[in-house]
Specification:
metal-binding, about 475 residues, about 45% helix, four-stranded antiparallel sheet, four-stranded parallel sheet, alpha/beta, Cys-tRNA-ligase, about 15% strand
Amino acid sequence: MSLHLYDTARRELREFRPQRAGTASIYVCGATVQGVPHVGHVRSGLDFDVLRRWLAHTGYDVLLVRNVTDIDDKILTKAEAAGRPWWEWAATHERAFSWAYDQLGCLSPSVEPRATGHVTEMVELIGRLIDGGHAYAAGGDVYFAVSTWPSYGELSGQRLDEMEQGEGADPRGKRDPRDFTLWKAAKPGEPDWPTPWGRGRPGWHLECSAMATRYLGPRFDIHGGGLDLVFPHHENELAQSRAAGDGFAEYWMHNAWVTMSGAKMSKSLGNTLTIPAVLQRVRPVELRYYLVAPHYRSTLEYSDDALAEAAAAYHRIETFVHRVHDRVGAVEVGRISDAFAAALDDDIATPAALAEVHETVRRGNAALDAGRRDEALADAAAVRAMTGVLGLDPVVWAETAAGGGAGDAAREALSSLVGALLEQRTRARADRDFARADALRDELTAAGVTVEDTADGPTWTLKDGA
């Protein structure tokens, strides 16, 4: 089976056929850096990170652009309320998002452009739209004339007579309330740039069209983002880009929300969980597991219990890999199974992919307990390959936690120390000195080491799965 993706615009699964053979081009709407990132923000980054990893695994050269919106009404409002320069406010929270992506194992995008660095491309795009009769200037503002684009609404499926742009009261000069702003006239105290229509700043929708085509060309493969962006943001991007003569995105993908008590997680509703706060409860890899385990198009209702269950599920995976390492030998990256590949080819179905991972863990544990070491080693190698595609490889995360390449050395040192205590315990049991044996086990337990007596002798794991 070849890769099939759900296209929001077509409302159907479509076989992925890239514009250029061997290359996959993706634009993902990144953060509007107005505050500290919460789990709802980073879900999109993680979902498209899995897509990017799967495309790379299957042989594509992936070009992924994830922008930073660093000029926006919300940024200006919050910076002013805090008494800080808008640019400093934006830069501070851009670093917070970068930290969160890094903590959760997101691969770096091919490029991460800022909106403020691409005003030239935005002004050029506006000029093309005005020349084509699809935009007009009025009182220093510039608007896209929705009525000039008959296919407006094709992405979201909304009827033209029922649409609202959400721009508040109609500004001066707007001809139709359905028209949306491309360029905003300068206001006192706000940043502005010179244009043929007067000084001002760009509208949000214009920014992404300009940055996407700047780096991926007039026609590219996939445009992604959160479900809340379908209208008006992505609808407006599509309209203005096509009206300007660009083919723009061939596939539109949208991840669902993270909700709390049935409501979308958002700062305006006050129902957010920041990444730093959640990482006080679970390790980064466990939060990543929690966020990528559901299908990207399924709403994820947050709960502490569900987060704990996800952490426990990941612990079972890494404990198996470490058991095989300790009892059989080093676990290299193996091959993914056909079932795992079929799951990801079916619109990145991570629930089915992880079900295959857990079935392999179950089978591998049974083989290890039965003394079939070669089978257990092969299963552990397959688990590393499959979790690697999902950004969850236990060995990689253990090395990261230990400071990169020092992971194996640290574990070997720990293994030597624990092994010496286990040897003392084994001798005590042989001498029927059970009090001494129990004391040694209690000592290990107090240090966070879980001991399991097996037919092949005692094995150990750390309680946190490290």
